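Sequence and structure are kept together here, with a separate record for every protein. An example record follows, reproduced without changes.
>
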Amino acid sequence: MYGITRIDTIDEVTLVSFPSIPVDLPLLAEIFTAVADEDILIDMVSQTAPVGDKIGIAFTCMDSDMVKVLELTRQLQAKYPKIKPLVSNGNSKIQLYGEEMRVTPGVFARMLSCLAGLDIEIKQVTTSEVDISLLVSEADLEQSVDALAKGFGLAK
């Protein structure tokens, strides 16, 4: 209903963000190649619009890869001292899915409205034509899913 037919969740997700790094494709390629070389599966990649010569970039991986991520970010920071990576584990991904999202205006607005009255922080959002994925702390997962299921008319 309202464009969403299913809500899925994934627990134990780590958020890795670089809030202010140079707009530099070779640097981004180096970061993501280093992640791949460590056999870390990533998800929810997002980038902010450039502000001057800086962007923010973030991605998620599983908490089980956090030790590798911490070592990798330590190495990157040693090589590029101005890069200040942030790593946060103990998150959950909520995925709203629906083929009708392609032709249903306002799905994202409805999602925000469902969560607006809750005392939660949405840490990251990525979208596609048929999917909205959002990252919240594991402590906020249940109330978030309950509110979304109710708001989109889905049985939990």
